[in-house]
Structures are given as structure tokens and as C-alpha cells.
Amino acid sequence: MTIKNVMVIGAGQMGAGIAQVFAQAGFDVKLNDLSEEALQKGLATMEKFLSRNVEKGRMTEEEKTETLNRVETTSTLNDANDRDLVIEAVVENMDVKTKVFQQLDQITPKHAILATNTSSLPITDIAAVTERPEQVIGMHFMNPVPVMKLVEVIRAIQTSDETYQTVEETAKALGKSPVEVNDYPGFVSNRVLMPMINEAIYTVYEGVAEPEAVDEVLKLGMNHPMGPLTLADFIGLDTCLYIMEVLYEGFGDTKYRPCPLLKKYVSAGWLGKKSGRGFYVYE
Ligand SMILES: NC(=O)c1ccc[n+]([C@@H]2O[C@H](COP(=O)([O-])OP(=O)(O)OC[C@H]3O[C@@H](n4cnc5c(N)ncnc54)[C@H](O)[C@@H]3O)[C@@H](O)[C@H]2O)c1
């Protein structure tokens, strides 16, 4: 199957970016959110990103206008009734996601593929709430979506080869590099990244070094573009804690226990950049 049109559910930081890359690649896009404010904010983010591309000579003003014209916003989920592919990027909450998938299963055409951008929730369990589990898959974009090349494509145990191939081809059509992984807690990206971030937090907790020193070691010694504690602040410390809990519970292995300092920061509302304070203070 060739995908021609898509709907992105959720117009937050990920959804707006996903809608943008599909529109830039020429797909007909519907962007859905419950909140009209989120839709307007999503469009404004897209416009800002594309304007920067025009300024830098990466695209023309006409291409920018054409891209934006390919995106239609809607707060009605029923508008998914003519879509080939739907990518869900709502909040990281299993109850919310399963409800969206059950509705999409009723609304979308029989041939439609239903993908989720979840960072950590089991795709197999999401697929199981639908009557088309073989057409459900994980399409894990990285933040910021227009910049990052990777799409981690996660196969639920039920996902068919045909669904996988269609999604792989679609990711390539976006100019992205799809990488195939199977559905286990944290997939590959967060299973490797999050324990490193958690361990970096332990070094601060145990007084091994200050946050700045930890970040310098990884930047200068391992050539990481940013230190793990800065990255944790950008991702959001609540999200980091949530993913560590998924790993800890999913594998039942104490090596994934979240650092008490991470829990304490989250309890204090120190969530990183978005709240103005995490391991660093933001204006
Ligand atoms: N932030 C990241 O770095 C990152 C990276 C990869 C994947 N993800 C995953 O992407 C998903 C979205 O994350 P985000 O950071 O964009 O979140 P966000 O909070 O910025 O956006 C979520 C949006 O979903 C909307 N929403 C909530 N329930 C909805 C519903 N039932 N129908 C339609 N819209 C609904 C909200 O109004 C909000 O605008 C999550 O599953 C997250 O784990 C996030």
C-alpha cells in the first residue's frame, strides 16, 4: 500500500513536528487535537520552523506556503474517516491512548494503518484493543522532529510484515532513517539512553560530581553533543522518571530503579526546562 494522506493526533511538541515533516514531503495532512489552542500553537511552531528554513535558504517562500496549505486542523476525530495512516502523539498515558485507538479503529477505513509515537508504552497492548492488531505499529520520532533523522519503527508481536514495510517506506519518503526494533520496554532508544541519564543523576546524588562536571565529562570525553543532565532537563524529568518506571516494572530488574534524587526533583515540580528548573535553572 502507498500512503497518500495522514492524520496526526495531538498537536503538541511532537505532533506539530510530525505534521510538518509529512506536509514538507507532500502528504495531505490533518492535524487533530482536543484543544483549539494547541492546534493554533502547533501551527505557529510549524510556521516559525519553516520561516527559519526560508531565511537560511533551505526552502522558498512558495514552498513554505505550499507546505502550510497541506495541513488542515481539526478537533473532530471523525475526520480520520478518509485517512491511510494515523499517527497518534497524545499524552503518554495508556488509558488516553487506548481510548483513541478504539475510536480510530471504528472511524478509519479498513485499510488504514494506526501508528503510535509512544516513547515507552507497549505497542502490543495498544494493538490488542483494536480489531486490526496486525495494522498497528510504533513510529517513534525523535525531538525536534524536523531535525532528527531517526524513526524507531517498533513492531508489536501482532504487526504484519506488510504494515512494517509500508511504514518503513513512508518514513524514507519523509527523508528519515527508519530502524526496525521489537516491542520490549523502552524499545532500543530509551532502554539505552534512560539508564545512562539515571546513572548520571546517581553520580550527582552520591556526590561524585556537580551536574556541570558530569555533563563536561560526557561532552568532552565521549563526544556527546550535550551532557546527559542537560538532555534530561530538555526531555523533562517527569518523562525520564516515567520511562525509568516502565523499564523497572517491565523487566522487574533492580538495575533500572529510578534514582531517589530524580524522584525528589519531580515531586518538587523541578521538571527541567519546561518548568524553569531542573539540574539547571532556566530564565
Ligand atoms: N517530548 C519528547 O521528547 C518525545 C519524544 C518522542 C516521543 N514522545 C511521545 O510523543 C507523545 C506526545 O508527546 P509531546 O511531548 O508532544 O506531548 P505534548 O504534551 O506536547 O502534546 C500532547 C498533545 O496531545 C493533546 N491531546 C491529549 N489528549 C488528546 C486526545 N484524546 N485527542 C487529541 N489530542 C489530545 C494535548 O492537547 C496536547 O496538545 C507522547 O506519547 C510522548 O511520550 C515525546
From TrEMBL:
Residues covered by the 3-hydroxyacyl-CoA dehydrogenase NAD binding domain: 5-183
Site (Important for catalytic activity): 140
Keyword Transmembrane: no
Protein name per its UniProtKB record: 3-hydroxyacyl-CoA dehydrogenase
Top-level taxon: Bacteria
Binding positions for NAD(+) per the UniProt entry: 10-15, 33, 92, 97, 119, 143, 274
NCBIfam families: PRK05808.1 (NF004474), PRK07530.1 (NF005715), PRK07819.1 (NF005875)
Biological-process GO terms, alphabetical: butyrate metabolic process
Entry similarity comment: Belongs to the 3-hydroxyacyl-CoA dehydrogenase family.
InterPro entries: 3-OHacyl-CoA_DH, 3-OHacyl-CoA_DH_CS, 3-OHacyl-CoA_DH_NAD-bd, 3HC_DH_C, 6-PGluconate_DH-like_C_sf, 6PGD_dom2, NAD(P)-bd_dom_sf
Functional pathway: Lipid metabolism; butanoate metabolism
Pfam families xrefs: 3HCDH, 3HCDH_N
UniProt KW keywords: NAD, Oxidoreductase
Source organism per UniProt: Aquisalibacillus elongatus
Gene3D superfamilies membership: N-(1-d-carboxylethyl)-l-norvaline Dehydrogenase, domain 2 (1.10.1040.10), NAD(P)-binding Rossmann-like Domain (3.40.50.720)
Recorded GO MF terms: NAD+ binding; oxidoreductase activity, acting on the CH-OH group of donors, NAD or NADP as acceptor
3-hydroxyacyl-CoA dehydrogenase C-terminal domain ranges (all copies): 186-282
Keyword match Oxidoreductase: yes
Highest classification ranks of the organism: Bacteria, Bacillati, Bacillota, Bacilli, Bacillales
